[in-house]
Structure to design on (315 residues):
């Protein structure tokens, strides 16, 4: 059962028991020993965007992470060393992580404008994100080290709306309209009618796998990205016909991909979302289940979606 605030029956409280500690840290996996700020931010924003109350975790998480932001405004990943969370790896992609961090800070405008540490972080993060803009192509690069752009990362950057922020920075980022157009121009392959996952030339010849290739084709629906020349519903239905069985078996060897279940529910496909709950039941709280999956399950519960019955054909 999801807890509910008194007088707010329509706003269930997000429950991250087993993922958090007393200082506000949030691990990737249940009782896990790693923290990846990207996945925590993804999970909290997903919960908030889908009607879950994240207030229990939002401020403690920001306070925990802002103390660990590096001088260049980027973030590390962390591993547990006894009672201490110590940096152990660099982030996979600075562009998406910085954008999600800025977007998350914007969800608490009053605290942001009144907290000097948060405000400083916001200003520095916006500047760091601006430095990753590949001006000729109009898209964002992964990091100063990895000079290529990723389709899904750029969609996450697009989801950050600096024009709506209460904080004004010294940097000017491209408008959402321009970024959206440039993302489409750079990543859409008109010949094969699919989105390229990367600007790396060799990616065109890499064998397709569920991640990143097939997930990338569905990812625009999570951000309401305009599919120029494509019907959104037909695009979704085709994806499910082609990849639903593979998606529903991912948790046996990889991750559970609850994000896809949230997209399914958004598209009105409650059957596929229910199938995900059933087919991933044994993966819950294992190494194949992450904080985003826990959030996805609670989003589905809020919408009255439960696990498919045994007689439902899911694959």
């Amino acid at each position: 059962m999801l807890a509910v605030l008194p007088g707010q029956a329509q706003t269930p409280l997000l429950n991250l028991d087993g993922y958090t500690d007393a200082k506000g840290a949030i691990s990737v996996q249940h009782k896990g020993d790693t923290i990846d700020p990207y996945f925590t931010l993804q999970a909290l924003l997903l919960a908030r965007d889908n009607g879950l109350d994240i207030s229990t975790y939002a401020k403690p998480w920001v306070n925990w992470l802002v103390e660990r932001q590096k001088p260049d405004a980027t973030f590390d990943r962390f591993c547990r060393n006894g009672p201490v969370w110590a940096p152990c790896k660099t982030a996979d992609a600075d562009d998406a992580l910085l954008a999600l961090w800025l977007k998350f800070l914007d969800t608490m405008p009053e605290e942001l404008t009144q907290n000097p540490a948060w405000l400083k972080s916001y200003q520095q993060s916006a500047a760091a994100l601006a430095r990753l803009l590949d001006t000729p192509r109009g898209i964002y690069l992964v990091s100063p080290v990895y000079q290529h752009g990723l389709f899904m990362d750029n969609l996450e950057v697009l989801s950050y709306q600096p024009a709506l922020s209460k904080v004004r920075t010294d940097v000017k980022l491209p408008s959402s309209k321009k970024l959206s157009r440039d993302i489409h121009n750079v990543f859409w392959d008109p010949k094969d009618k699919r989105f390229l996952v990367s600007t790396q030339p060799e990616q065109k010849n890499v064998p397709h796998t569920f991640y990143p290739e097939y997930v990338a084709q569905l990812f625009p629906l999570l951000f309401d990205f305009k599919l120029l020349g494509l019907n959104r519903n037909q695009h979704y239905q085709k994806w499910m016909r082609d990849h639903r069985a593979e998606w529903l078996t991912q948790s046996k060897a990889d991750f559970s991909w609850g994000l896809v279940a949230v997209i399914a529910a958004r598209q009105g496909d409650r059957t596929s979302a229910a199938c995900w709950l059933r087919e991933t039941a044994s993966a819950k709280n294992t190494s194949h289940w992450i904080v985003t999956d826990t959030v996805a399950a609670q989003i589905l519960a809020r919408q009255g979606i439960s696990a498919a019955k045994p007689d439902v054909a899911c694959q």
In short: The chain has twelve helices and seven strands.
